[in-house]
Each structure stands twice: as C-alpha cells, then as structure tokens.
Records
---
Amino acid sequence: MTSVVLDAARELLRTEGFVELLPVILAPVTDPLRHTADRAVIEAYGQRWHLTRSMIFHKQAAVTVLEKIFSFSPNVRLEPAEWGQSGRHLFEFVQLDLEVREADRNDVLALGERLLVHIVERVRGFCAQELTLLGRKLGELHAPFPRIPYREAEARYSAGFEDHVSRRAQGPVWIVDFPVGVREFYDREDPSRPGVLLDMDLVYPAGYGEALSGGEREHEPHRILDRIERQGLDPTAYGSLLAAARAGLPSSAGFGIGIERLVRYLGGLPHVREVRLFPRVPGEPAAL
Amino acid sequence: MTSVVLDAARELLRTEGFVELLPVILAPVTDPLRHTADRAVIEAYGQRWHLTRSMIFHKQAAVTVLEKIFSFSPNVRLEPAEWGQSGRHLFEFVQLDLEVREADRNDVLALGERLLVHIVERVRGFCAQELTLLGRKLGELHAPFPRIPYREAEARYSAGFEDHVSRRAQGPVWIVDFPVGVREFYDREDPSRPGVLLDMDLVYPAGYGEALSGGEREHEPHRILDRIERQGLDPTAYGSLLAAARAGLPSSAGFGIGIERLVRYLGGLPHVREVRLFPRVPGEPAAL
C-alpha cells in the first residue's frame, strides 16, 4: 500500500507541475520544533550537521529557483521514549514535504484536499484486496473538508483537543489559525490579526490524529528575526536563514504530510510501526 | 532532469513488479565499506545508530518477504576532504538501491542495462531542451554493454584502472569478477572459482567513472562468517546480520546506483555538486 501511496502522490503533483527534489538529510540548520533539544547531530569537516527534522528552510530557499517543489524527506526526531506507545510516533519517518512560491494558505489547503482525495481513490482502486484482508472499509473522501479555528476547537474541547477532534470526526478536519507561541516561528503571522498564524493542521478521523501541518511562511528578514526573538530562540543559530532572507526569499506556502501516518490511517492499522519493515519506535531497540 | 530520472527509474521498476520501500537512514548496523571508520553515528535510546552507508543488509532481509524491492536511499559517507575535488563525491547522496530474491548476477546485470537504456531514452525525450542548453549530446544506449573481468582490466591498465576504462570507453562498460579482498564481505564468492566474486561494477564512458555496484550476495550464515573473518572484521559487530542469516535469508542479487552521478553523466556536468541545490561536498562548509 505504501508504494501505491507514493505513486499516487507523485502522479498528482507531477500533473500539477511540481518538481521532485532529492531530500536533504544533513544540514547546518533544521526545524526547531518548539524548542525540543536536538541530539541527532554529527560532526564532520569542522562543522555540526543536524539530521533533518523537516526540510522547511530548504523548501523556502528552493522556491527561489523552482516554483513548485516536493521531496520525500526522511526526518529524524528523537521523541521521548514514552511516545513509542502512542501509535503515531516513529523517530525516523518519511514526510512528503512540499512548497509553492507565492501561494497562500487557501491554495495549499485546496492542494492538500486534492492530494488526499486522489490518494484515497487510488488506494481504493489498487489495494482493494489488501483493504479487505485488513478488514478496512475506506470510504471516498469529499472536499472541501470542514475548517475549525484553533480558538474555537480549544474552547469546545479544552487541552489535547486535536485528539478529541480526531476521535469525533467523520472525515478529515482542518484546524486553522493557530496562535503565535504554540507553533514554530516560520508560520506566518496574519498582518491583519496579530497573534494569529496563517497556518493549518489536518486531522484524520476516527482517532488517527494529525495528518499534516503547514501554512504560509515568514519570509521577510525583519519578520523572521522578530518571530525568532519572541519564541525566545537564539538568532545566531538561524544566521544562514536570515542571510538567505536578506538575499531574498519569496513568499510561499506549503505543508508536510507523514507517509507512515497516512498509510496507517488508510489501512486502519493500530500502530505506525506496521507500515515499516524496520520501524524506529522511540525507546525500542532494533536488531537490524 | 533529476525528477525525470526518478520517474523513469520508478516507471521501469514498477512495470517489472518491484515494490518501493521507504528508506532506512538510521540502523544498528550498516555497510562496512572496506574498513573506513564510521564517524556518522548518533546515540539514542541507549543504542548507537549508524547513518546508512547503503541499505545492503536491509535489502537482503526485505527480500525474505517481498520478491523485488527498491528504495531511493539517502546515504552518508564521510569521505576524505580531498575527495571533494574528484567531481564524483558528495558525502550525502541518494542511491537507488534494489534487490531481487533468487536472482543471479546475469539477471541484475540485464536489469541494470534495461534501466539505463530506459532512463537515457526518457531523458533524451523529456529533457531535450535542457540537454541542448547544457551543450550535451546524449546518444541512445544499446545493450548488452561489454564486460571486462577485473583481472584482465587490471593487467591492461594497472592501478586505478576504473578511471582508465571510463576515459577510453565509448559507452557503459561492466567490470566483473572482482577478487576477494578488494570488495565487501557480502559480495558472493563463486563456489566454482574460490577467490573470485560474483559481482560487478558499471563504469560510465568519457571519464564519468563508477555508475553502479552490485552482485550476488553471501546469504548462508557460515559463508558470511567466513568472509567477515577473512576481511579481518569483528563478527560481533555483525551479530544481527548473522542472526538474520541463521533464521534464513534467501539467495539474492541486486545493485545500487548513485542518482547524482547518473544525472552528472546524463547532463555532462563537471561535478556532482551541480545536481543538488544543497550539495554536501567533502571538506566544504555549507550555510543551509
């Protein structure tokens, strides 16, 4: 099923004019991911290289030369060992990471819907036997998916509300307008609504949880610097990003969607580990 | 051009019944690569994880459950800084790594020819404008490619002969039958010709150098152990491979072909760095 998902995703993206980039797995700077300490680092040639946590900054730089890009990007995130039981966490996973120059949130939101609708159609068509074996009834998806602003979802469900939304939903649901502070500095703040971000998450139904994360990006150097400082991060750690922004980053929007979580949802599997032959589960040793 | 190459490779492999696996980038054990010390290692969850140097052992294990597999596998090999000027080395690159259960060398050699012929055809068709811009005349390829046994090439060209073969060749050339000792322990020794391996390299013409490496595999536990010991390696470092072999690994053959080197050859580029937006060249610092 995984290879059908990969092919279906590429098929749609190629039709829409996207160019596939080879992934970056070592970089001087990577996604800060809300302050979690990064222990996945190696030293080589007199420099520290982070294992990629997402290709966010490389995507922003890539759309200066190519309008629409995607990559199947292996990410390493050394999550707490307890998260190994969540069913949703691998410390090595693959993210379909894409970005579109001069797009806004509505553009990539609609792209996300087309992408999921297409993948579900292909999986229903090509993996009918596998779905039957798994006892999985996978219905067609219909766009547009409902959108709930973060503040509304929070008021309705209180803390951990993505899980509540996911458990009650009949189909995928967008959560939009995250507040500054709960998200990374690169999500763009709405100029007309200070404190509110032009970003989104997609949540799978039936408790499968978060599907994708994305939005518009901060791309102007003074805005990036402001956001880095308001997050309490060290701007010198993001010097090369700021230099790229001063040299000129275009406005852009995009998202990243985890492949193993997508296949878990499509197949109705209890744990993402079942998607991989050699799963990397937080806290679990591996032989091979 | 890179995305055309990726699509063309997948197109042929899917037609021939191959299943795409997600890549493994962290593993307790990875390709020894002729004794070079591995400094690309991280610690997590009480275990050491090597950044993948090739998916060789994972491919051998994967064909126990799937007959034909491939993966676009990011590899990290911290080569000496001087190699940065070779034109052929990146310390992070992507390898199309494939394996076929119960195949022999002739099977994968012919597959390699079909794959290259198909990719060249697609690039000539879809990248005609780009080839013209690059001033690159890329002719059709015709299989079979010539095969030269290692001992014969060595006698004719002496040391560093792959470069000589590559510079003089009019088209891709196979070098076959490497001797034990110049290759890794997992290349299968010919039972009827002790000391000779059932393996091969493909060399590009016009000095573009090595294209792919592959062959049949040692899969029986006593043979693997014998080869590890003859290479002077520590068998305890390969305990999980030996355990997998004792549990039963099928015979198989396969190869890995570097994508950046392939695109460099197709485009006639002076250095593999030009294939990547964020090249990782040995000895060179990077900003992003």
---
Amino acid sequence: MRESELLAHIYARSAGAMPPGVLVGPGDDAAVVEFGGRRVIATVDQLVEGRHYDPESTPVDLIARKAIARSVSDIAAMGGRPTCALAAASLPADCRFADDLFDSMARWAQHWTCPLVGGDIATTAGPVVLSVTALGEPHAVRGPVLRSGARAGDGVYVTGALGGSLASGRHLTFEPRLAVAAALCGALGGRLRAMIDLSDGHGRDAGRVAVASGVRIALDAASLPLHDGVTDWRSAAADGEDYELLFTAEGAAPGNVAGVTITRIGVVLEGRGCVVRTPDGAEIDAGDLGWDHGAS
Amino acid sequence: MRESELLAHIYARSAGAMPPGVLVGPGDDAAVVEFGGRRVIATVDQLVEGRHYDPESTPVDLIARKAIARSVSDIAAMGGRPTCALAAASLPADCRFADDLFDSMARWAQHWTCPLVGGDIATTAGPVVLSVTALGEPHAVRGPVLRSGARAGDGVYVTGALGGSLASGRHLTFEPRLAVAAALCGALGGRLRAMIDLSDGHGRDAGRVAVASGVRIALDAASLPLHDGVTDWRSAAADGEDYELLFTAEGAAPGNVAGVTITRIGVVLEGRGCVVRTPDGAEIDAGDLGWDHGAS
C-alpha cells in the first residue's frame, strides 16, 4: 500500500473521534487546533536520506533547507504564517555533520520566521531521517484554507511553473509560497476556496482536493505552466516535488501575486474524481499520474 | 559526543536569536511559544527500535504507548496539560504493523487527552523511528514550570519510586505524571520552582536543573525512594527511564499528591554542580551517574 494511502486509511478511522478543539484533524496539509480561542496550525513531515535527497551530491545546508521548507510549505498551503518549528533527527552514529545540520536547520527556520524552538537527536544504524514539525497561525481574516472548500464552478489555479524539480535541483531550493498564500488570502478572502501544496504531482494533489471537497476536478494539460526545459506535462506530473500551490477560487484570480505568476489550469465540476484533459482531447484519471513514495 | 550534549551545544548557540514570542526556547523539557497571548507548550521526542524498546519482545501497543508517553511526560514536566500530538514514523518497507501502530498511537494519545491530529509515514531501510511532537498548555495559574527556577534553599523532591525500569518493563508502561504535575502547580503555586522528568537518571537530570538554574544541588542517596526489588541506588540512576518528576520547592511539599508519594531527596545550595551524597558519606559528581544514549 502506498504511504499516503496508508496514512489516509489510518486517519479515516480516527477522524470522527476528534474533540471540539481540533478544528481540522488529520488529512489536510496541516491540522488546526484551538488554544483558548487562538487557532494554531500544526504539521509534521519527514526527509529521508536516499529518498528525498542524494547523500552523495547534496550539501548539508540544502538537506537542512529542504527539511524545513517542506513543513513550511504545508503552513503556506493553509494560507498560514509560520510561528516556530521542532526538529527530530535520526543520524548514523558516525555522522559528522550533526552540528552543521542543526545550525543550518536553525538558520533556514529563522529565515522563514519559524525559529527552531526544540529538537531531538538519536543515533541509529539507519539512514538519516529528519522529522520537522512546524506550527503557525492562519490568516487573520481569511482563516485556514482547507482542501475541502472547493465548489463546482470554481476555477483551478497554480502558482509559478511546474516540472523538472528533481533534475534541476529545484526540489532542494524551492521557495515555500508563504508570501503568495498570504497575498491570495488578502486579495480573494472567502473566494479563495481550497488550497494544497504540490508534492506528488498536480494531478494526484488536485485529486486530493477533489476527494476532500466532494467535487470533480478537470485539469487542462495544455494550460499547465511548465518550467523552461520541461516539454512534457506528463513528466512534470510524474516528478512531483514542485511545492507550488494549487488552489480553487470563485471567480477570477489575479494573474500575478507577490511577484509570482498565477495560471488557471482547470475547473471544478459537480461529481467525483479528477481528470486531466490531454492536448489530444483524451481524459486521463489523475490518479494514474504523479508520484508517491512507496508505490508498489 | 553524547546526544544530549550535542543537542545542548547546538542549541546554546541559537538561544540568543529567539524572537520575543518564544518565551522558552530550546533546552528545557519543552518550548513555550506565544500565539496571540496564548502560551503553547511544544516538545518532540523520538523512539528508536532496538534502542528504546526490544523489537523481539515488545507488543506493538506498548511501542506506540511509549512513543506517545515520552512526549506527554515532557508536557507534564512543564506542569502542562496536553492538547494534541503529531506522529512521524519511519518504517521498514515490509513493516506489517503500521496500521496497528498508528491505531495504538491514536488510542494512547486520546487516552492522555492529546489527540493525534497529524502524521507522516516514510518507508526506509533502517530501524523503526517514531517521532512524536506533543503540544499543550501551561497551568492556568502557575504558568510553565521550567528547569531554571530552582533557588538556594529549595528542597528537591521526586514523585513515586525509582529504579529497575528496564528490567521490570516499567519503561513501557509508566504513567506520565500529568495529574501530579497539575496538582503540584495548584498546591504549591509559585513555591513550585523548577521541574524535570527523569529519563536519564535522577543524578544526571538533577544536574540539568542545577545548570539551568545556576545553583548547586546536593542529593542524598539514602533518601531515594526505590521500587521493590531495587536495592542499589546506583543501578536506579544508571537505568534511567523512570519518567517520574523531580522538582524543587520553596518550603515543604505535600507527602502525597494525586495518589502519588512525594519524597524529599535533596537540597538546593548556592554554587554550581550537582552531587550525590552516598550512604557512606562520600560525595559523587552526579555527572558520573545516569545514562545517556550515545555515550562513548
């Protein structure tokens, strides 16, 4: 079973048992929990050596950067502002870069106004595993933007450009879309309906929005904004790790927000499922696109 | 270098850089961060297969229990009440108990009113590593109880009994001292000066309070409350993993709180360091006692 499916399966059973203070439980980009009336966004993500980065070629600073950026990107996907982070590291006993790694994680965490306030180190025989929990606050006016808010008639939009993340090294240097998310919350308010960050390919991740919202999403492959050098929209989907935002909005969205291009790539319909309309007119199930660690 | 020393070393450098909203940064049992005036306690801890439990003999439910309980114990050590938790798991690709493991973690988290609101699974070639972040709120009146509050003249106290945790299996079944901590906050208020949970042996952990508070602590070995079957106070220190609370208080503390015995085991003095006075009158540096994973 795929990791993400396993996790969804596990959480589906526990979702009904959440107490009232848990406003958003497992299954979105992050949870939202109330602390005496204040809403706190919380998310955890892992970075695994050999899986999410190549240990031979990746500088320690970029390992640290990606570990922090992945969790910060989840905060952005809720339209939130990061507050702090905690990092747990499993490291080989002979690891020489623990010191540099935590230094770099602390620096990148500060960079995204998300100071590292706690951590843990354990030595293991296994690969390096960095687990980063990020906390944040939702946009003061818009509130947290969930995966479940898409409605028939919304447009589907994506920030920036997609594809070639692994080959280009962008998966190590992407900028979490905090500024864009905040600007979208401010500009669109309640018209900003649903949002997710793209880690597993736009087709698969749009499919998650469709499932969470109980709608059908139709994406138009020809309209996908691709990075220079990326010519095949399928490979862009297969690579994943874009960490751009995909969102749905009622009515028009601006073409540029916080210096980042916004492109309309599809539409939300009544029904279920997520399809990609290919340039030759076929419809492909988005579940057959994209990328999932642990896929068998 | 020992793991805990490495972490302390790493965090010592970053401690000065914390923004004003971070009331307690790295280095205590947990961090305390302000969210619009509400204080949130946050901590992360890891449970590693073969290190913190024996994979051959430990039921999945007790692996899950210990993973949650360790982080909940950190919340208790701040005098806090848990609010929610997030769990990240690194599991072997052929792991058959992921489902049961997350089920059990969710159940134990609920048990300690700390619902699992988020998670992540990654398959690796390495050992099972469970990383649990727990969030909580400090006691409404007393506020968070730090390691740094001990003052000369305080008594040093411990909850429950110590020793034999590994041999007895108590390290898998201990009860995080949430109720005791809350009752101590209520009963002692500002007289409850400093607190820590005992994971690495009372000597080593008391030493951490001494360092954080800038005081000297003298423990009396003869007064240590030992579990039935534990006859040697040194072995009690060496085992660690008691997860009882050690605290300092101005004036007398009650002998029993929330059904748990409280024992006075030492005194806080002017100066630096932490010593254990042995039954034969010698003074041993507490740094030479106790247990630290990764000690060389």
